[in-house]
Design the sequence.
């Protein structure tokens, strides 16, 4: 269990052992023994890092990344369609090249 208070720049956590909760003395930089994720505070904001060292994204960052990926996919589809059209204009059937 953890509590982050961005107004005070505090991060507090507890580790369960059997039937008790023990407070984690230094939560900043602490790595969960079960999940292997790391907790940090940066400018009062809680940051959580995956086992591979990459930061977990907050919802807004995830939404932005999804939007960018959708835009890239749409651009790639438009380029593919333009290429198909160009090949067809030159008398080449793009379907002949599908394995």
Sequence:
């Amino acid at each position: 269990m953890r509590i982050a208070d961005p107004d005070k720049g505090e991060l507090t956590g507890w580790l369960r052992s059997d039937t008790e909760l023990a407070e984690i003395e230094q939560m900043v930089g602490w790595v969960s023994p079960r999940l292997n994720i790391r907790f940090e505070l940066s400018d009062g904001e809680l940051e959580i890092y995956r086992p591979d060292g990459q930061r977990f994204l907050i919802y807004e960052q995830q939404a932005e990344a999804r939007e960018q990926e959708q835009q890239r996919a749409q651009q790639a589809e438009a380029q593919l369609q333009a290429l198909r059209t160009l090949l067809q204009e030159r008398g080449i059937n793009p379907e002949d090249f599908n394995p």
About this structure: Residues 59-90 form one domain. The mean pLDDT is 87.
